[in-house]
Amino acid sequence: MSWSLERLQTYPPFSTLVRLLISDRDYKRGEERLNSSLEYLKSLESVEVVGSGLAPVERIANRWRFFILIRSNERVKLIKISTPLLF
Description:
By secondary structure, the chain is α+β, with helices and mostly antiparallel strands. About 30% of the residues lie in helices and about 35% in strands. It has a single domain, classed as Alpha-Beta Plaits (2-Layer Sandwich), CATH 3.30.70. The chain is globular and about 45 Å long.
């Protein structure tokens, strides 16, 4: 497989990936939090949502888990954007 320089620059170490994990005992409430976070992230220009959905391990300790994978070339901005979503 041939990788172009432009495509390589969209992956670490040239850009930053962050995985956000949402966990809730109630499936519907967790899904609502996932969808509201996705709406917020998709409205931002400096962040690309790479993937989202149920986490590979869907439940741990009776809590449903969802993930969002985001990417950006601006590391500091990505951290500032993702921090409020953690609470």
